[in-house]
Amino acid sequence: MAIITTPALVLRTIDYSETSLIVWLYTQQQGRVHVIAKGARRARSPFEGALEPLVLGELVFYRKANKPDALDIAKEFDPIDLHRGLRQDLDRMHRGVYLTELLGELAEPDAPNEEAWTAIVAALDALARGPASELEVVLFRAELALIASAGLAPALRGCASCGRPDVGAFSIPAGGLLCEEHARRDPAARRIPVGALKTLSALAAGERLRVGREIAGAIRGLLDDFITHHLGKRLRTQRYLTSRRPQRQRIGSPT
Ligand SMILES: [Zn+2]
Questions:
Q1: Domains in the chain and their CATH numbers?
Q2: Tens digit of pLDDT for each residue in 2-16?
Q3: If you measure from the C-alpha of residue 215 to the centroid of ligand 1, how many angstroms do you get, rounded to a whole number?
Q4: Which parts of the chain are beta strand (E)?
Q5: Using CA of residue 51, residue 4, residue 39, residue 25, what is the dihedral sign?
Q6: How far is the C-alpha of 10 from the C-alpha of 35, rounded, in Å?
Q7: Which of 27, 141, 128 shows the shortest CA–CA distance to 77?
Q8: What is the pTM of this model?
Q9: Mean pLDDT score of the chain
Q10: 245 pLDDT more than 70
Q11: For residue 130, how far is its CA from the centre of ligand 1 (angstroms)?
């Protein structure tokens, strides 16, 4: 049995027995891990309520050797960033929860990925503290970075089939943009406004830019379909992004 200490982000928690939790975390050193946190549901928990989704902390856990199906055992979790700004604003929280669900689905267990780690930490920080006007762009960039970190980045620099630079359509099965000729042959190809194509490329390159409502809508639809195609299912939290609830609603901190 090895003991491992690593920065970690709580993705989700599942009640387990009267007093314990099973916790999915994304860790910098080990990628996605599943630990059992004994006593975490007790009033006087050794984890002091820090094992909540969206909390970034330092995790110490015991790794069970030679048993791939055995749960690792959490020993300590010291919060580094509770991301309070995310929890106090539904619009920010929905985006944060969605990104952690996306990461949890894309990440293989025990496969560390520095690119994914950097992307999620930066995105949650920006969602918690950044200006409200930039939330959409933060989300798009994070989604594209997480998709890329899983090796699924769409071809955005030219036609996915022939590499030609003049493109006008997007095909999810073909894996990205298509030129006129290849778009004609691909029944799944869809026309995308030129502005949306350019914006998508700029976002994938990590540029900070303003995105108008119409272009944001086109990109949202495209990313939803792209992600659903690759995961083979629609993410539970995706609906929060398309059907907006009243914004700026205050909610209490989760207990
Ligand atoms: Zn082509």
A1: 2-82 (2.40.50.140), 85-153+192-242 (1.20.1440.120)
A2: 999 999 999 999 999
A3: 24
A4: 2-16, 20-27, 31-37, 56-63, 72-81, 169-171, 176-178, 190-191
A5: positive
A6: 11
A7: 27
A8: 0.89
A9: 90
A10: no
A11: 39
